């Protein structure tokens, strides 16, 4: 099958071409699964979010105006992040507790540098969902604390507190992991 560029795939998908939609799905499914897996505790939940996200993407595609491939990728990624957050909210998994609202301290997470991506993903997926969600939104997606507070319906201080606690917990877990391996 002829491999079309992204703009052509989008145009053909908008007009209902199933082969173009399949090709677009194939092209985007692996990186978007990576996004979903960072937020969900189980692979099954991540797959559900991925499929729901693609459903919404294809449903909204006609209204999308193509500017560039990175802009399209960012648009699809935002859909996946929003779907992940909706699933967490629906399952009442996001329970952010702000104990100390004024935590602006940085936490050293240098043990992360020596870790394989798959190991890091496992560690991130094992922390509580509130910490994990804020960590992903801030450190990986690049959201500001203001944007996170609006997305999750929490204060900016709560967002900062959750990020601080996530980094601290990750550092402790990684240090423990290093001790287990005799490092």
UniProtKB/TrEMBL annotation:
Domain RNA polymerase sigma factor 70 region 4 type: 120-170
RNA polymerase sigma-70 region domain sequence ranges: 25-92
Annotated InterPro entries: RNA_pol_sigma-70-like (IPR039425), RNA_pol_sigma-70_dom (IPR014284), RNA_pol_sigma70_r2 (IPR007627), RNA_pol_sigma70_r4_t2 (IPR013249), RNA_pol_sigma_r2 (IPR013325), RNA_pol_sigma_r3/r4-like (IPR013324), WH-like_DNA-bd_sf (IPR036388)
GO MF terms, alphabetically ordered: DNA binding; sigma factor activity
Biological process, per Gene Ontology: DNA-templated transcription initiation
Entry keyword annotation includes Transcription regulation: yes
Keyword annotations from UniProtKB, A to Z: Sigma factor, Transcription, Transcription regulation
Gene3D superfamilies: 1.10.1740.10, Winged helix-like DNA-binding domain superfamily/Winged helix DNA-binding domain
Pfam families: Sigma70_r2, Sigma70_r4_2
UniProt cross-references to CDD domains, sorted A to Z: Sigma70_r4
Family per record: Belongs to the sigma-70 factor family. ECF subfamily.
NCBIfam families recorded: sigma70-ECF
Name the UniProt record assigns to this protein: RNA polymerase sigma-70 factor, ECF subfamily
Organism: Ekhidna lutea
């Amino acid at each position: 099958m002829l491999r079309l560029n992204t703009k052509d795939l989008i145009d053909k998908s908008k007009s209902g071409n199933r082969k173009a939609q399949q090709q677009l799905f194939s092209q985007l499914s692996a990186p978007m699964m990576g996004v979903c897996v960072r937020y969900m505790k189980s692979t099954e939940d991540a797959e559900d979010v991925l499929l729901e996200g693609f459903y919404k993407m294809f449903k909204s595609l006609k209204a999308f105006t193509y500017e560039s491939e990175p802009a399209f990728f960012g648009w699809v990624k935002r859909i996946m992040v929003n779907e992940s957050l909706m699933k967490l909210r629906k399952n009442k998994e996001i329970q952010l507790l702000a104990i100390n609202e004024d935590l602006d301290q940085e936490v050293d997470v240098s043990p992360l540098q020596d870790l394989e991506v798959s190991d890091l993903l496992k560690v991130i997926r094992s922390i509580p969902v509130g910490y994990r969600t804020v960590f992903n939104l801030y450190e990986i997606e690049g959201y500001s604390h203001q944007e996170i507070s609006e997305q999750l319906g929490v204060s900016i201080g709560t967002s900062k507190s959750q990020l601080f606690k996530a980094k601290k917990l990750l550092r402790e877990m990684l240090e423990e992991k290093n001790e287990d391996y005799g490092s």
